[in-house]
Amino acid sequence: MQDAATLAMDQPAGLQVDYVFRGVEHAVRVVVSGQVLELEVEDRMTADQWRGEFDAGFIEDLTHKTGNFKQFNIFCHMLESALTQSSESVTLDLLTYTDLESLRNRKMGGRPGPLAPRSAQLNSKRYLILIYSVEFDRIHYPLPLPYQGKPDPVVLQGIIRSLKEELGRLQGLGGQDTRDTRETEIWHLREHTRPWGRWMLIT
């Protein structure tokens, strides 16, 4: 992903990393295109996916409500730093709606009471929490991610097939100068195909 000075431009910028939330490995994909942030989280074991799209107005209104306003491009830069773990002041968490309500109650100093029945749609939603730690305080920015289900097996088969073709092409390339780059790309392709293949075996 590009730096904060260029994230708000029209040129799309993307980042994908593996991130462990509460002992479970997830793939987190972020794309910033113009003034829109697209965010997707996928459980590496179950292939369940959650996805959300947020424009600059939503992000800046969200940060304003926390009392710690951030401009859109600065927020995207903070998210990138949290994903790449390049700054100790920003971290991430992934919460259910119940988790989020409990967090709000703790911050307000109230005792957790019985939760009212929630719809299945609300219960299936996840919230990616960007946590900004400053002196004497921690600010939580919750990004709601509706549940998208699991990938279509037919689509997955096509993706795996194209990745394997690309893997074969890279393995067939010659030349000593490109060896390190080629081996790195091959490793990434194998990492991408492994969880999808495992999920298809489970289903």
Automatic annotation (TrEMBL):
Primary subcellular site in the record, as a coarse category: cytoplasm
Keywords carried by this UniProt record: Cell projection, Coiled coil, Cytoplasm, Cytoskeleton
InterPro entries: CCDC61_N (IPR049733)
Oxidoreductase listed as a keyword: no
GO cellular component, one term: centriolar satellite
Family named by the database record: Belongs to the CCDC61 family.
Protein name (Swiss-Prot/TrEMBL): Centrosomal protein CCDC61
Natural source organism: Sapajus apella (Brown-capped capuchin)
Upper classification of the organism: Eukaryota, Metazoa, Chordata, Craniata, Vertebrata
